[in-house]
Amino acid sequence: MVVDIRYHVSSLVAVFLALGLGLLIGMALNSDGEILRQQEARLTAIQTSLVDLRSQHAALSAELIEAQHQVETYETAWELVVPRVLAGQLAGHRVAVVVVGRQEPPERLVRRVAETLHLAGAGVTGLFTWVPPPPGQARQVAASSAAVAAALVGRASLPAQRGELGIQPVVVRVAEAVPGGLADVLVCVLNYQSSEPGLREWIRGLLAATRGWGVQGVLVTSAQVGADPLRPLAGGHLAVSGIDQPLGQLALVYGLAQGQTGLFGVWSRGRPVLPPMPALPASASAARQGALPASTP
Q: What DSSP character marks residue 244?
């Protein structure tokens, strides 16, 4: 049998092709194994991260529960302490309350303001809402503000015109309210954001009119509204943010009782949260010192 050279060449080519194919298959199998190991490593890392996240979530949940418990304890303590601290501080004052803004006032906020004044011994002559006209519709802001102020604090008998002026009574039951009559304090609850146009000039006109009658104008906001609406108006007036919080209630009552002006409350930003508190009476201070155990050298 005669063997042709082409047969040898074909055989060698086939061998090398088979060898190359084997190398390729082996490399592919090895590569798949490496990818599998990488995937397993990533899966392990993800599982470890999930375990860590669950542990962190459990720790944060425990901290949140503890914080909520502390807040509830704080609020309960304040509810017990505040009435005693406020009692009698505003005795003899007659206060009118008006909520200024174009949104429906929260009844809880109005009730909290009225109850704070009542706890301090003040008579609440009226609770109102006031919706000033939109910008550009009022020809004389000062005159209109004066008419509104007269209706609010009882300097003018304008019951028929209250609706025309945008004033509406708020029906909130407050113990021992003193309806009607002259007021020596007007508390303006600003129920709007600082960016709302037109209202600032109306408030200024209202405060100017009350000042002319010797009525003290006070500006307050809830903790949600914050102090921004108060800052441009606080000059020469008592302004309190967070009136729905115990610290805001203390700032309102003691600020009024001492004739303080300026911005106080929970969002005062670098300013005192409370006005200067009155000194403890000498008898009470001595009693407290006597109740303390004597220190040993």
A: T
Q: Residue 4: inside a domain, yes or no?
A: no
Q: Are residues 180 and 94 in the same domain?
A: yes
Dihedral, CA atoms, 47, 53, 58, 63, nearest 10 degrees?
Answer: 170
**DSSP category for residue 162:** T
Give the C-alpha separation, 110 to 263, whole Å.
Answer: 20
Tally the domains of the chain.
2
Strand duo 123-130 + 185-190: pairing = unpaired
Q: What is the pLDDT of residues 91-132, one digit of tens each?
A: 989 998 888 887 777 788 888 898 899 989 998 888 888 877
Residues 243 and 114 in one domain: yes
Residue 94, H or E segment: strand 94-100
Q: For residue 14, give its domain range.
A: 9-86
- Pairing mode of beta strands 216-221, 167-169: unpaired
Contact (Cβ atoms closer than 8 angstroms) between residue 209 and residue 235:
no
| Amino acid letter, residue 98 | V
CATH number of the domain that 106 lies in?
3.40.50
Tokens of 291: 């109740």
pTM above 0.70, yes or no: no
